[in-house]
Amino acid sequence: MKIKQLSVFIENKEGRLKKTINTLVKADINIRALSIADTSKFGILRLIVSDFKKAKNILEEDGFVVKETDVIAVEIPDETNGLGSVLTILDKEEVNLEYLYAFVSKQSHQAIVVFRVQNIEKSIKLLKNENLKLLNQKDLEEF
């Protein structure tokens, strides 16, 4: 199951990240996970949020450039090599991993790893065949 990630392009200037977060707070949007990649001039804030449509609209209305991306969120077993076992599944089938980041579920107390892969449909099938739990958009709303 795919979920939506928002990528917000922000200037690498003092106060820009805070402004972005405040925009979401004012709209009562909960951030489930985030990742920041930056260069000297700008940053990319990747977000998993409770209401991606509302978040995208409110950020764009506030002047931010926002991109919507499909990603996979997988519940990873809390054990030695939990992540490694998932990476092995993808690697065996030559799925190219572009990036990943993680957060912890309040409900299950398990690690949730967000994967951006080149072949998302193939990856979903592989992970489901291994009986791994994939989150859907509704799961993110209910956290």
Radius of gyration: 16 Å
The total strand number stands at 6
Give the overall silhouette: globular
Summing up helix and strand content along with how strands pair, one would put the structural category as alpha+beta
- How many domains make up the coordinates? 2
Largest sheet: 6 strands, antiparallel
The average pLDDT score comes to: 93
Residues in helices, as a percent range: 25-40%
- Write out the CATH superfamily name of the largest domain: VC0802-like
Spell the H/E element sequence: EHEEHEHEEHH
Number of helices: 5
Enumerate the strands of the largest sheet in spatial order, edge to edge or round the barrel.
2-3-1-4-6-5
* CATH architecture name of the largest domain: 2-Layer Sandwich
What CATH calls the topology of the largest domain is: VC0802-like
Give the amount of beta strand, in percent.
Answer: 35-45%
Unreliable spans are: none
CATH class of the largest domain: Alpha Beta
Query: How many angstroms does the end-to-end distance come to?
Result: 17 Å
InterPro entries: ACT-like_dom_sf, ACT_dom, ACT_dom_pair
Protein name: ACT domain-containing protein
Domain ACT: 71-143
Organism: Methanobrevibacter curvatus
